[in-house]
Design brief:
- Strand 12 and strand 13 form a beta hairpin.
- Helix 1 packs parallel to helix 3.
- The N and C termini lie far apart (about 40 Å).
- The strands form three sheets. The protein has a six-stranded mixed beta sheet with strand order 5-4-3-2-1-14. The protein has a six-stranded mixed beta sheet with strand order 6-7-8-9-12-13, covered by helices on one side. The chain has a two-stranded antiparallel ribbon with strand order 10-11.
- The protein has about 260 residues and is an alpha/beta fold.
- The chain has five helices and 14 strands.
- The chain has one domain: 4-Layer Sandwich (Nitrilase/N-carbamoyl-D-aminoacid amidohydrolase), CATH 3.60.110.10.
- Bound molecules: acetamide.
- The site of acetamide has 7 residues, from loops.
- Acetamide binds next to loops.
């Protein structure tokens, strides 16, 4: 199964330009799964709900999201993409998982909000879940960026059967680079982190997004890594079935050996 990460530079509050670039990227990328960063349609740093409202998209209604779905179906590929979602009065930091069959597509709403996201977004209410891709026999779990700080996120997805955890991101520290391989090892899953590049300035604050998107195998080895600061696409081949035997010797199995009764 061939995975692609599109490391992009979304232009803040220029949804038309960003969406156009995303559709072009999908058209020209050949992979079984194409992953874009968090808030790839809008840019990241919003503290004004009125401005965010202009750029928020309604799941199953926005024309752009329908175009992404059509491409997922036409290309027979999975597309994962972060966007600001509007549902009634609420805004969520969401990621769409567009499956070739539109009935299987789902939206994940970021569980753990980071920093000033709290000023405009509502905490996600979808919880952590996986989708199954029958063609590649791959179970895909999803989380978004700051969710990485909570080992429960990856563990929950792994216990649900994830073979790969995908993490659309707008990372602002390098610490996560130490943590993602650990999540891969302790859960024996692949991890794909799609980060963005560029800077965003709001008032006297500047956020720098480094890129360095990466795909890790289930031993924590990096299969592919993007550069610092450049837009690019990275690829890796994964073998989803190889994650399923959680034993690492004749006695120990990282799932069967868990002692949840000791964790209270
Ligand atoms: C983040 O959650 N975008 C740091």
């Amino acid at each position: 199964m061939r995975i692609a990460i599109v490391q992009s530079f979304p232009i803040h509050a220029d949804t038309n330009t960003n969406c156009h670039a995303i559709l072009n990227r999908i058209q020209s990328t050949n992979a079984d799964m194409i992953i874009f960063p968090e808030l790839a349609t809008s840019g990241y740093f919003f503290t004004d709900k009125d401005l965010l409202a202009i750029h928020a998209l309604k799941w199953k209604e926005a024309e752009f999201l329908q175009q992404v779905q059509d491409l997922a179906s036409e290309k027979d590929t999975i597309i994962i993409l972060g966007f600001p979602e509007q549902d009634g009065e609420a805004f969520y930091n969401s990621a769409g998982i567009f499956m070739p069959n539109a009935n299987d597509s789902q939206v994940y709403r970021k569980t753990h909000l980071f920093y000033k996201e709290h000023t405009v977004f509502t905490e996600g209410d979808t919880g952590f879940f996986c989708v199954h891709d029958a063609k590649n026999d791959c179970t895909i779990g999803i989380m978004i960026c700051y969710d990485w700080r909570f080992p429960e996120a990856a563990r929950t997805l792994a216990l649900q059967g994830a073979d790969i955890i995908v993490c659309p991101s707008n990372l602002v520290t390098t610490l996560s680079g130490k943590v993602f391989p650990a999540r891969a090892i302790e859960n024996k899953v692949y991890v794909a982190v799609a980060n963005r590049v560029g800077e965003e300035i709001l008032g006297d604050e500047t956020l720098l997004f480094r890129g360095e998107s990466a795909i890790y195998d289930y031993t924590g080895e990096r299969l592919a890594q993007a550069s610092f600061g450049n837009e690019e696409i990275i690829y890796a081949e994964i073998d989803p079935i190889a994650t399923r035997n959680k034993a690492f010797n004749s006695v120990n199995d990282i799932f069967n050996d868990r002692r949840p009764d000791m964790y209270g």
